[in-house]
């Protein structure tokens, strides 16, 4: 379980302080998947950076499984918008990076898991290529593989599909949800697309303008529905969300 | 004479530097023929490609002594660098006119371009030659070309009318039809000298004595041996062009001796007048008689 | 290897063209300082064994100079990139030293390091190290900070970040900077090998010059150019091996 | 101006630090080749008027050398970038000439261009022009081809594309390349002003060296460094004026 | 009127030829606005590049107002995905570029038009800034201004809004349509978003996989409808298009 308590973040840039986020409090139960939407610059990436341990200078409290969040102790998967692959590593070295850094020996269990994930994502054959030799969708799949292989306590994704075109994007979303249903990893992702939030978020968190605070958290009954976009309810929920956006991310 | 041969008490290495020029032949021969060893001297003979490098090494304390010239020693003394002349060498500097310059003798040199290096024994020799011929330094156009091969080449290609050159460059110029107008030797001045720092004289006097004994041996050897026998050695070490093989003529070398005080005084006066040095130097303070005999 | 082979072919073309131009120029000006390339190559025999030892001596000095510059330059560059304090302290120093004509410092170098190989190597180091420092520091600072995101979130240690991200990320710039260094180091041989040695291709050229042996001198220049080119190719091959992803 | 002022302050800090280090080193080694900075500055009076004329003479040569290199380098670089044929012809030439030690060609340059300013400027040009050619060509080739899209769709002529896109796009690289050139040009003064002249800061340093006037020599080095720095600042100001968008 | 007749484009890259587009034939009447959707790499940008005069090496015929298309004679506005502003020009110099290149004197008429466009797009106050000092939405507006100021015979846009976030994107779309309704410039735009195609395209052209050919051209009755996304018909049309995409861009 992830508990965020009165988290706020202030950047110190060139002598003036910019409050970028907060205070934010929320709780994500194990095996949940939360979507976060909010206006540009409201602090969404900032929130993910705190949770992934990249920003360590924050106020408030963040507990993961009842311990203060710490990427050295916890196992955290992080997928940034540009997929976060290292161009100088082959695909294999890229998706094995998590195990490499955590110095995990590859036992039977892990080996099976790797096989399963690679198979599901259909990237077995890309092993020896370099990221530059992949299409956007392929890069995205390698990045997802990296996180699922390590079986993280928490998975964070910052606009994971926004660099993909419409078709590839839908494919990738479906692949992801398929895998997620298998492993049920506690996940928090940021998106700019109402459609994506409704399709992939069990709960949808709406954040206000900078410094971002939580405007509303919505239970999403449509999570993981097939042919979602053709359902009547989808239209209602999405027009409700659109209404909030039009009112400037307020209720 | 008390020879140090046999006494193996803490012999120090003597570091000696010179440019690749004719004056260094006795040192090279002494080294190759083992005369230094015979004197029990351990020598580190450094041949430099430019005077600046030699000066830098000398000043930096990497050398105990050098082959230099009287002007350079004045400059050292002027800079409070206590360097003493311990002997003369037989290096000569010659003023050669180009084949197509139209200069036949010193009379024709007025208004012509003469290649030299500045504030050195080369310029000094030119001025002395001019004055001996009732001309003044202002009567010629001095063109500064420090690198000797380039000076020679500018003369050959008629870019300058005359050039002051040391051996072997002067011989090469004459071979190309250049006309010898005069030389330091013809005035019985020998501006090229061997010099050591006072520090070395104090700390390594035995080694320096051995150095000069070997020098004299080499002089004897050279004066009494046909050039062809040691030609290869000097071609290799001194920087004689390969095509001068069989044509090298060496002057009769003198055993080590101190230059005349009057000669040094003349150089001091010249340098003073030129404004190259500011101090009042005394020839007596610039020489040191190591007294080998 | 493909890149290397292509470069070799460009080099050979260039070599041919320079020689033709050279031949024409020599034919027109007819000066002793500019012998025709044919004369130069016909005389190659008399130098051949000599050249080999000279090239080796220079190669050693250049390699040592570049090696030491790299060790110093990379460490200081990283230090300046990672520590604001050290950057503040060292930056003015590097900035001021950049335009100082290092060749004028020869007396000090001789003073501090004598006349031997150490001083030759040091003068190479002195000239190269600043540009390596600057290029390493800038390369490290130019790594977008979000590049480290994924590895930081995995709880990687400083050392792991370094090995997995920093080093591979700056490698291309580092190789470029070595390539530039080679050119500079070779042209410094002219100063460095003018004293205290009888070996080295710089010495060979200077010696030939003083002997008015222009054929030897041009041969030396050609050999030096070829040496430079071979080092370039070596770096290219190294780059293709180390930076496969490019 | 902000950037320039910042650089001046970094330079002053560097200047101070170097002087302190220099002072300490001079204090430790206590040798004539390394006078203390205080001695050097105390003696500044005796050179002052002299220095001014020397700086001007060098500045003229450096400016002319860089100017000509720019005109040649930019034209040839553009030619190579725009024409595949010319690139094919000239590339091997440029590639081979890059590592040739140009300073070894001094004797030929003197013979071809005489002893006057022309040959001094020519050697600067010879060393700079290749790197300017390469950097201009690469900068032009590195402009993403879609940059020209909007202006092509407006039916712009070649000349308009050139003025509105190519020139402003390569300007930053061009200025960087001028900045590097300045450093190189200043250190070439050592060769160039060693002959046929009695003016110039390179001559001043060499002359002081010959006269074993180490105070004068270090003063010259300091002046040369400051000159280099002032030229850097001039380029910075030029960059801020021309590349306001950066 | 724009007439495209059997247009096809083949790229020559490293000795092998890649057919990227065609054959394509279509006709766009004056004052129409067409949306083009198709899979990634199908040749959409290639088509726009031919129409904008950037690619001159094509087979087939392209006539604009009954003359062979030629950017020197015709006046063509082109907005690429990255907005196509020149970073070294101020905003003013950027939007005046079209007049500058065409060497048009600024008469009363044009001056009024400029004022109107700048005012509508609300970029009067940005005149002296450089593009780097603008947000994505502002850049987009400057780029639109450039094209509208010149009153082009044909306006081409390549994924014009895809670099903007959800909110900014909707704003920009509405601004654009507002201006377009004023001037009715013949327009062709490429998009990856079904939503955008339905909102902004009077007709929607669907292109097949590479080399792209026209699969279908759809009349869109929903063009420029307010609160489009909440209409029943929108759902139908979009699910119809989605169906085509799912079948791999075939009918
Ligand atoms: N390193 C930084 N220094 C100073 N301010 C920053 C820094 N990073 C972000 N900010 C500011 O903090 C605020 C939040 O930024 P953040 O990147 O978290 O927003 P976001 O919600 O992810 O935006 P977007 O949707 O555009 O990705 C913004 O106003 C931004 O300008
Ligand atoms: N300069 C080029 N040389 C060779 N092939 C090219 C070139 N430009 C594009 N192509 C190829 O032509 C095809 C069409 O490319 P184009 O950019 O027009 O596609 P697109 O539909 O715009 O794709 P996207 O939706 O990704 O922007 C692709 O297969 C692409 O790989
Ligand atoms: Mg963000
Ligand atoms: Mg495209």
Automatic annotation (TrEMBL), chains A, E:
Enzyme Commission no: 3.6.3.-
GO MF: ATP binding; ATP hydrolysis activity
Pfam families recorded: ABC_tran
This protein's UniProt keywords: ATP-binding, Hydrolase, Nucleotide-binding, Transport
InterPro entries registered for this protein in UniProt: AAA+_ATPase, ABC_transporter-like_ATP-bd, ABC_transporter-like_CS, ABC_transporter_ATP-bind, P-loop_NTPase
Keyword Nucleotide-binding on entry: yes
Domain ABC transporter: 2-234
Superkingdom field: Bacteria
Protein name: Aliphatic sulfonates import ATP-binding protein SsuB
Gene: ssuB_2
Automatic annotation (TrEMBL), chains C, D:
GO cellular component: plasma membrane
Domain ABC transmembrane type-1: 55-239
Transmembrane segments: 12-29, 59-81, 93-115, 121-141, 217-238
Superkingdom of this protein's organism: Bacteria
Record's subcellular location: Cell membrane
Pfam family name, one: BPD_transp_1
Alphabetical UniProt keywords: Cell membrane, Membrane, Transmembrane, Transmembrane helix, Transport
Entry annotated with the keyword Transmembrane helix: yes
BP GO annotations: transmembrane transport
Keyword Isomerase annotated: no
Membrane topology type: Multi-pass membrane protein
Family named by the database record: Belongs to the binding-protein-dependent transport system permease family.
Full protein name: Putative aliphatic sulfonates transport permease protein SsuC
Gene: ssuC_1
């Amino acid at each position: 379980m992830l508990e965020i308590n009165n988290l706020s973040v202030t950047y110190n840039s060139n002598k003036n302080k910019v409050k970028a986020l907060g205070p934010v409090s929320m709780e994500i139960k194990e095996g949940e998947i939360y979507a976060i939407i909010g206006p540009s610059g409201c602090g969404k990436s900032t929130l993910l950076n705190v949770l992934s341990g990249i920003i360590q200078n924050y106020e408030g409290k963040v507990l993961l499984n009842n311990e203060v969040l710490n990427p050295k102790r916890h196992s955290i998967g992080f997928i940034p918008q540009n997929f976060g692959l290292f161009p100088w590593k082959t695909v294999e070295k890229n998706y094995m990076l998590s195990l490499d850094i955590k110095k995990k020996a590859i036992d039977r269990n892990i080996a099976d898991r790797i096989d399963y994930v690679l198979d599901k994502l259909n990237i077995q054959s890309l092993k020896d290529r370099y990221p530059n030799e992949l299409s956007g969708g392929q890069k995205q799949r390698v990045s997802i593989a990296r996180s699922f292989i390590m079986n993280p306590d928490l998975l964070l994704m910052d606009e994971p599909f926004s660099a993909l075109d419409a078709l590839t994007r839908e494919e990738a979303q479906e692949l992801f949800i398929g895998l997620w249903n298998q492993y049920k990893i506690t996940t928090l992702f940021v998106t700019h697309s109402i459609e994506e939030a409704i399709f992939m978020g069990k709960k949808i968190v709406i954040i206000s303008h900078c410094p971002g605070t939580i405007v509303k958290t919505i239970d999403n009954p449509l999570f993981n529905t097939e042919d979602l976009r053709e359902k009547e309810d989808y239209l209602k929920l999405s027009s409700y969300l659109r209404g909030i956006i039009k009112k400037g991310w307020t209720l | 004479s008390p020879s140090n041969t046999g006494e193996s008490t803490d012999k120090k290495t003597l570091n000696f530097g010179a440019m690749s020029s004719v004056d260094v032949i006795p040192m090279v021969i002494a080294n190759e023929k083992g005369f230094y060893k015979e004197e029990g001297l351990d020598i580190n003979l450094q041949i430099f490609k430019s005077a600046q490098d030699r000066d830098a090494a000398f000043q930096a304390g990497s050398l105990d002594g050098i082959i230099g010239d009287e002007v350079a020693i004045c400059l050292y003394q002027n800079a409070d660098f206590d360097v003493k002349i311990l002997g003369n060498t037989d290096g000569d500097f010659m003023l050669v006119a180009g084949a197509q310059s139209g200069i036949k003798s010193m009379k024709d040199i007025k208004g012509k371009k003469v290649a030299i290096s500045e504030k050195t024994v080369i310029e000094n020799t030119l001025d002395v030659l001019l004055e001996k011929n009732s001309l003044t330094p202002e009567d010629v156009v001095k063109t500064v070309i420090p690198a000797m091969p380039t000076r020679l080449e500018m003369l050959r290609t008629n870019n300058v009318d005359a050039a002051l050159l040391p051996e072997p460059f002067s011989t090469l110029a004459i071979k190309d039809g250049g006309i010898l107008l005069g030389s330091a030797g013809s005035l019985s001045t020998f501006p090229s000298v061997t010099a050591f720092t006072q520090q070395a004289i104090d700390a390594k006097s035995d080694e320096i004595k051995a150095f000069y004994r070997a020098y004299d041996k080499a002089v004897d050897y050279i004066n009494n041996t046909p050039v062809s026998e040691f030609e290869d050695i000097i071609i290799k070490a001194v920087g004689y062009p390969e095509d001068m093989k069989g044509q090298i003529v060496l002057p009769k070398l003198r055993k080590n001796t101190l230059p005349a005080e009057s000669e040094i005084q003349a150089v001091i006066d010249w340098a003073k007048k030129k404004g190259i040095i500011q101090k009042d130097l005394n020839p007596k303070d610039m020489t040191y008689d190591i007294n080998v005999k | 290897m493909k890149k290397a082979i292509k470069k070799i072919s460009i080099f050979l073309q260039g070599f041919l063209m320079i020689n033709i131009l050279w031949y024409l120029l020599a034919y027109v000006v007819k000066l002793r300082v500019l012998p025709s390339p044919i004369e130069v190559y016909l005389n190659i025999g008399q130098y051949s064994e000599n050249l080999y030892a000279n090239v080796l001596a220079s190669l050693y000095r250049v390699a040592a100079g570049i090696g030491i510059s790299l060790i110093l330059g990379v460490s200081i560059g990283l230090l300046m990139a990672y520590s604001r304090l050290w950057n503040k302290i060292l930056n003015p120093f590097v900035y001021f030293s950049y335009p100082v004509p290092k060749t004028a410092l020869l007396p000090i170098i001789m003073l501090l390091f004598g006349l031997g190989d150490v001083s030759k190597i040091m003068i190479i180091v002195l000239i190269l190290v600043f540009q390596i420092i600057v290029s390493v520091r800038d390369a490290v600072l130019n790594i977008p900070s979000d590049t480290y995101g994924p590895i930081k979130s995995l709880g990687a240690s400083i050392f792991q970040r370094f090995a997995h991200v920093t080093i591979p990320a700056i490698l291309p710039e580092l190789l470029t900077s070595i390539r530039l260094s080679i050119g500079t180091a070779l042209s410094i041989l002219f100063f460095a090998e003018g004293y205290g040695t009888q070996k080295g291709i710089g010495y060979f050229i200077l010696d030939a010059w003083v002997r008015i042996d222009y054929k030897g001198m041009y041969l030396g220049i050609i050999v030096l150019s070829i040496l430079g080119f071979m080092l370039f190719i070596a770096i290219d091959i190294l780059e293709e091996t180390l930076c496969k992803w490019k």
